Amino acid sequence: MIGFFCYNSIMNRALVIVDMQNFFLKNMKKENKKQLIQNQLLLINSCVENNIPIIELEYAYRGENRGKTISELHKQYIPKYTITKFDNGGFTKTDLHNQLQKLNIQEIILIGINANGCVQDTAIGGLNRGYKITTEKGLIANTWSDDLHLSKSNGVWYQSKTQFFDSASELVKYLEY
Q1: Which pLDDT tens digits describe the chain residue by residue (177 residues)?
Q2: Domain span including residue 79
Q3: Domain count for the chain
Q4: CB of 45 within 8 A of CB of 76?
Q5: pTM strictly above 0.85
Q6: Which of 108, 54, 111 lies closest to 83, judged by CA?
Q7: What angle do CA 116, 17, 48 make, to 5 degrees?
Q8: Nearest residue to 85 (alpha-carbon basis) of 103, 70, 63, 116
Q9: Which string of DSSP letters, residue by residue, matches 39-104?
Q10: DSSP secondary structure letters along 4-20
Q11: Which residues, in sequence order, are CB contacts of 43 under 8 Å at separation 6+?
C-alpha cells in the first residue's frame, strides 16, 4: 500500500532515510537485512499514518550514484524529497537543511546505513544546525558487522547525543503523541 501524507505541522518532524541502497545492503547477512527492513517499515508506516514527511538521502560517490532507495521501502510511501549526497553527511553540500527549514522541521528521525558513518555524520550535521535527532538501534545498522548491533562506542554516542529508543515499537508510540 502506498501512503500519501500531508505535512504534520504540530509535530515538526521528518523521517530521513539514509543510504538504504542495494549497493550498501548487498553484503549484509540476509537475516540482518530482513530485520532492518522490517523495523524500518514499522516506523515508515507510523510516519505515513501520522503525516510525517519522508526524505530520502541517496549516496553518489565521485558522481556515480549508488542506486535508488530499495523498493521494499517504497511500497509504503512516496518520498517528500529525494536528495543526492556526495559526502557521508546528509547536510554536506546538499539542500537538506533548506528543505527541512521550508517544512519548519525541528526534529529529524534517522534510519539507514551506516550507523558509524553516513547516519552518524548526518546526525552530527543536524545537531550542529539545531535539530533534535531521534533514532533507534534497530533502525540503523553497520553493513560490516555480523549483527545489527552498534559498536559499544557508537551506541554510547547515540545514547548521549540523540533521543535514542531501545525498540522501534517504543519510537512508534512516541510518534503518536
Answers
A1: 333 333 444 469 999 999 999 999 998 889 989 999 999 999 999 999 999 999 999 999 877 788 999 999 988 888 889 999 999 999 999 999 999 999 999 999 999 999 989 999 999 999 999 999 999 999 999 876 665 667 777 888 999 999 999 898 999 999 987
A2: 13-175
A3: 1
A4: yes
A5: yes
A6: 54
A7: 145
A8: 63
A9: HHHHHHHHHHHTT--EEEEEEEETTEE--PBPHHHHTTB--SEEEEESSSSTTTTSSHHHHHHHTT
A10: -----TTT-EEEEEE--
A11: 15, 109, 111, 136, 139, 168, 171, 172, 175
- Measuring CA to CA, how many Å separate 35 from each of 21, 140, 147? 16, 11, 10
On whether the CB atoms of residues 36 and 141 are closer than 8 A, the answer is yes
Residue carrying C-alpha cell 522490517: 38
* CATH of residue 56: 3.40.50.850
